[in-house]
Amino acid sequence: MSRIVGLLVVAIMLALPAARSRAAELVMFERAGCVWCARFDAEIAPIYGRTEEGQAAPLRRVDLNRPLPADLSGIDPGAFTPSFVVLQEGREIGRIRGYPGDAFFFGLLNRILTSSG
């Protein structure tokens, strides 16, 4: 039994650095009626969580018609929607203003994620 517990402890310790390195998130600032937000919803949202980028930076949606969450108070959402802000450990490391289409979106996001690592 103690060998199993020891193996579990080792597995958890090995997983911790990977979990810390994935401390990024993609915050999507959006508004109701945003045509480009709807296009993102149709083209990217259904698959995003299954992509490498989605695994590295899970999507978090923020409605600009509501108060900003307290942990985002230092982040400027910008004037245009959607605006995508990549945060790592609560700090902005990159931004995509608007939705440039699926190919460009993933290219820009990948550039942000790889330049921060």
From TrEMBL:
Annotated SUPFAM superfamilies: Thioredoxin-like
Tree of life domain: Bacteria
Name assigned to this protein: Thioredoxin
Protein source organism: Bradyrhizobium guangdongense
